[in-house]
Amino acid sequence: QLVESGGGLVQPGGSLRLSCSAAAVNLDDYAVGWFRQVPGKEREGILCIGPSGSVMYFANSWKGRFTISRDHAKNTVNLQIESLTPDDTGVYYCAEAQSTCRGGFGSWGQGTQVTVSS
Hints:
- By secondary structure, the chain is mainly β.
- 0% of the residues lie in helices and 52% in strands.
- The chain contains no helices and eleven strands.
- The strands form two sheets. Strands 2, 4, 5, 6, 9, 10 and 11 form a seven-stranded mixed β-sheet that branches. Strands 1-3-8-7 form a four-stranded antiparallel β-sheet, with no helix packed on it.
- The mean pLDDT is 96.
């Protein structure tokens, strides 16, 4: 079971760091991806980090403001978002996949709400 945290209300232009944690597994052994669902749209993939630390963006449009990292000591995978805009408002999810970001993501968190508004 994955758990996302760090969401909340942020002003436009601000930054945010979301965390994905797992109590029962070592996230270092898995590929972990971050996804976003905005109101009225389907969930879309942002980026993923593999067990080796390699990073894959699901689309080039995510590059620049979204970065991913592992905190091995805390067993978390973090998503850093810069220069937030109201269009970034949505629910952010993390999910794990066996060994590669190109595999199926089987275990998902419940999501954390991010609202960007002044």
